[in-house]
Design brief:
Keywords: Membrane, Transmembrane, Transmembrane helix. This protein is an all-alpha fold and about 110 residues long. The chain contains five helices and no strands.
Length: about 110
């Protein structure tokens, strides 16, 4: 009896998942929104620790969050500028969208 290399080949390891359930996905997606962008990079740091994404991508999110928060504060320390608010809303929307896409197999950047 001959062996078939396709049937006897070991399965390739699957990429780790960020979310264990749909509820976990909703909760992690709400983190940047509820924290008003102060914890926008937290889901990406957790994903890097779990091995879902590469660590450099989490570093980019941490650096971008710190840069945007410093820039929004430096633009208008009094809080009257609509540009600073727009920067924070842009960070919230971007982080929440990308958090929801962490387990998407079609997205390959940083994985």
């Amino acid at each position: 009896m001959t062996t078939n290399p396709y049937l006897n080949a070991p399965l390739s390891p699957t990429r780790p998942k960020m979310f264990g359930s749909p509820l976990a996905k909703v909760v992690w997606t709400l983190v940047p929104i509820v924290s008003i962008s102060l914890a926008a990079a937290v889901p990406f740091v957790v994903a890097a620790v779990k091995g879902v994404i590469k660590p450099w991508l989490a570093g980019v999110y941490v650096a971008a969050e710190v840069l945007i928060l410093i820039l929004a504060t430096a633009i208008d320390p009094q809080g009257d500028s609509p540009f600073a608010g727009m920067l924070l809303i842009l960070l919230i929307v971007t982080a929440a969208t990308h958090t929801a896409l962490l387990d998407n197999d079609k997205v390959t950047v940083g994985k």
